[in-house]
Amino acid sequence: MQELSEATKKLIAQYAFAKQRELPRQGAITIHVDEVAQKVAAFYEQIRTIVDWKEEHLMRRAAIIRKLKRKFFDMELKNFSDTGNAAESLVFELIRGGHFPNDKIEESKIGDVQRAINKYVFILKNNPENKEGKAGLNFYNWIIDVCACEIEETLVPAIKEMALINYMFEAMKEKIKVSDKIYNAGLLKKEFTYVQIYIAVCLALFKLDKPIISYNLIKYRYPDWSKADEKLISDIAQKIFRIWQKIEEDLENPMGNKFYNICEKYDTPYLLMGDILAINDPAEMGKEISDPSVLENLIKDVYSKRLATLKSRISRAAVYSTISIFVTKVLSLVLLEVLIERVFFKENPNLTVLISDVLIPTVLMFLIVSGIKRPSKKNLNLVTMETMKIAYKKEGTDTYEIKPSRKKGFVMKFILSLVYVLSAFITFGAIYYALHHFNFPITSIVIDVIFIAVILFAGTALSKRAQELTMEDEKEGFIGFLSDVFFLPVQGLGRWISNKWKKYNALAALFNALIDMPFSAFVEFIEKWRYFIKDKKEEIR
Q1: What is the distance between the terminal CA atoms of the chain, rounded to a whole angstrom?
Q2: Residue 407: partners with Cβ closer than 8 Å, 6 or more residues away
Q3: Cα(56)–Cα(50) distance, rounded to whole angstroms?
Q4: Which of 104, 189, 434, 476 is in Cβ range 3.0-4.6 Å of 480 for a Cys bridge?
């Protein structure tokens, strides 16, 4: 038997508390929505999943943000003079859409959600640094994003996830050592080291996005934020714009990648510890995992389960992202291609070319996903050893040093940049030559280059997600090196296009403007009509 570390004991206690919180309170009244209205709304939300595709764990909050923006727009038209029943209608919409379970959310949560909305409305109204233009719009959207994070946490508290983040964060604070050269060069201020570690842990463990990390950073700096009193809210409102700017700086810090790479490599043991406590009774686990042989068997069991679910998640993400790219990008650009051919070239588009425009990105995504490698057997041994290290008390602590990148002179930078540009010309030239050889028109070639770039970027992101259980150092051969040389420019273009498309997703804007609000009103009408019919039936005796 071995003694568990204090951090592990604390994690077990938090998981036990979370399990207790999940049990329904005796006599608590829960929110119920009509089943027919729920099915209709859920069908629409599935369509929106394709249009607004994000990673699965972000989809629910994306729906909250979308609906919350509509609520804030309505309130802004009234100069925020009346927040009305914004929370009630919002929560009902989310449950109808299948984002939260029916008959599980307590009615008292509506009041908590309304208080959260009121808090951020107050901040918007009383922020003395309200800006106009792009900065003001970005700030406004950020406030709504953070508000959505708090609403999600209010309805379904992420106790286990936050416990696991803190568990890894405390460990990484001891293990990660930053070279003095980084501080001396002004690349990072010493007092912000822990912030960078915290951001890296959030990204590595749960692939959290900017809004939720921003919300977590606010809570990290202001622990009472979730239950803030009027004084704290008023104080935050006076400096919220500067808080936002500082968080943006922290998230964009160039040194962040170095912290992330370490946390990404060593996050697997923490994920597996979380799985062990989530699947089993945490209170009992504290005694059982004190036996190393029991812990080893549990590690192997949850590792194999996570590996199986990882494969299905990657396949599902590949399907949804490809469909999303097809619907929001391919379809719109193919229609644009048809329009250009008809208007400018006075020709009917070639059907074979149009089919190829659709098939090329789809087949490319299939090949990328098919080529994703599973972790080797050696990886399981590394993961098992590392998980035992974090579970038990030990004398020494492993350290991972962060050093500055090697400096490159002007001549070397120029040569490397020249090679990168040359490789981009070769790759794009090869794509152009291949498509031109098969008599693709210039419009189709440009569109296909865009498709290939976007798919390569999306596929690369998926393949990186598939490595979330891998602790082995990746061995790159000569072919892998050549692949990076020639395909990195294409992936870079795909990343730039994807980020721009997020801001200017015409199809999503169309849904928001013309379909979202009328459809929500239609679903609400169905629910009220159903209750009306039920009342009439009760009158007939």
Answers
A1: 69
A2: none
A3: 11
A4: 476
Structure tokens at 369: 């996903």
- Mean pLDDT of the residues in the chain: 81
Q: What is the 3-state secondary structure (H, E, C) of 307-363?
A: HHHHHHHHHHHHHHHHHHHHHHHHHHHHHHHHHHHHHCCCCCCCHHHHHHHHHHHHH
- Alpha-helix residue ranges (DSSP H) falling in 252-329: 256-265, 268-279, 282-288, 292-325
Count Cβ atoms within 10 A of the Cβ of residue 60 and give its class: 0-12 exposed, 13-18 middle, 19 or more buried: buried
Secondary structure class of 392 (helix, strand, coil)? strand
SS3 4: strand
Nearest 5 degrees, angle CA 219-CA 158-CA 69? Answer: 70
| In-domain check, residue 53 | no
Q: How far apart are CA 358 and CA 338, in angstroms?
A: 13
**Which DSSP symbol is given to 100?**
S
Which residue range is the domain that position 320 belongs to? Answer: 315-394+404-504
Choose among 57, 360, 75, 325: nearest CA to 212: 57
pLDDT at 133: 66
Task: Report how many domains make up the chain.
Answer: 1
Give the tokens for residue 443. Answer: 């419009």
pLDDT in tens, 459-481: 777 777 777 788 877 666 667 67
Question: Does residue 92 belong to any structural domain of this protein?
Answer: no
In a domain, 335, yes or no: yes
pLDDT given for residue 456 in this prediction = 83
Closest by alpha carbon to 209, among 418, 372, 65?
A: 65
Signed CA dihedral, 459, 461, 464, 469: sign only: negative
The neighbour count for residue 111, using CB atoms within 10 Å, is 13
**Which range, of 388-397, 499-508, 515-524, averages the lowest pLDDT?**
499-508
- Helical (H) or strand (E) element with 402: strand 400-402
In a domain, 134, yes or no: no
Residue 437: Cβ-neighbour burial (10 angstroms; 0-12, 13-18, 19+): exposed
The C-alpha atoms of residue 191 and residue 194 are separated, in whole angstroms, by 7
